[in-house]
Structures are given as C-alpha cells and as structure tokens.
Design goal:
With 98 residues, the protein is mainly α. It has a domain of 62 residues. It is built from four helices and no strands. Helix 3 packs antiparallel against helix 4. The longest helix has 31 residues. The protein is elongated and about 70 Å long.
C-alpha cells in the first residue's frame, strides 16, 4: 500500500468513528430532522464517489466508488422518504362528511 492510500484509509476510519459517535448520542426526537439535514452531506458523498469511480485508475477504485455511489444514494433516498413521512404526520387530515 502506498502512503496516500494508508492516509486515506486512516481518515475514512476516523470519520466513520466520529460520525457514529455523534449520531449515537442524538436524542430519538431529533433523529429524523437530523437525517433530513444530512441529505446534503450525502449528496456531496455521491459527487465524490462519482468522481472516484469515473477516474478508472484501477479496478478497486472503480468498484469502491460504485459501492459508495449505491450506499450514498440509498441513504439520500431513505432520508427523503423519512422526511416526507414525517411531514405528512403534521398535515391536518380532512374530515370525512357523513
């Protein structure tokens, strides 16, 4: 492994650990609004993964970039679905006429 790859792996593991610790300590009442706000961060991850996968420097980079695209997009879609569901809970329901 090159020193750049080791440094990148170190940053990835550290970011994952810090992200896990931050999310783990969030109150359940705040979790859904927090998830809806993180969609912007996931979109940045999608763009970065597209760049990595599109470079096609080596096979492992292309495969990991593609996996990152799939994982980030599933998180973005899930975040939007949960946000939509949360917003529907606060809408007034129409009264059925007898």
């Amino acid at each position: 492994m090159t020193s750049d790859m080791i440094a990148s792996l170190y940053v990835f593991v550290l970011a994952g650990f810090i992200g896990f610790e931050v999310i783990r300590r969030v109150s359940p009442l705040l979790h859904t609004p927090l998830m809806s706000l993180t969609n912007a961060l996931d979109a940045i991850a999608v763009v970065g993964a597209i760049v990595i996968a599109g470079q096609q420097r080596n096979a492992i980079g292309t495969v990991l970039g593609t996996l990152a695209i799939v994982a980030s997009m599933s998180n973005v879609v899930g975040g939007f679905l949960i946000t939509d569901r949360m917003l529907r809970m606060f809408k007034k329901r129409e009264q059925k006429k007898p």
